[in-house]
Amino acid sequence: MPIKKSAAKADRRSKKLRAVNLQHKLAMKGAIKTLKKAVAKGEGDTTEMLTTAYKFIDKAAQANIVHKNNAARKKSRLTKLVNKTAAGK
Fold it and tell me: Does residue 40 have a pLDDT over 80?
């Protein structure tokens, strides 16, 4: 339990920021998961899902929730996955 006022405020602030960051991260992970499931089943418009996943990944990178290189790697791998399945059809 914080004793000083500034420490209490920092604690409150960190809890709020953690909730916001978690929300962004879960949205990003959910978009990636739905895209991977759609690719595995071979159904749905994967290019539309890819753009949605890109959007969430970029927002997370912009908010420093994930590193920009991590975001680029995720986007690259997802694109590779979608292109691979598109070529296989």
Answer: yes
The span from the CA of 89 to the CA of 9, in Å, is 56
Chain-centre distance of CA 45, in angstroms? 19
Q: What is the reported pTM?
A: 0.86
Spacing of C-alpha 13 from chain mean position: 22
Give the integer Cα–Cα distance in Å for 84 and 77.
Answer: 10
Cα 74 to Cα 25, 45, 79, 89, distances in angstroms: 13, 19, 9, 23
- CA–CA distance, 34 with 7 (Å, rounded to integer): 40
pLDDT tens digits for range 45-55: 899 999 999 99
For tokens 């791998």, name the residue: 77
DSSP for residue 45: -
Q: Tell me, which fold does domain 5-88 have in CATH?
A: Methane Monooxygenase Hydroxylase; Chain G, domain 1 (1.20.58)
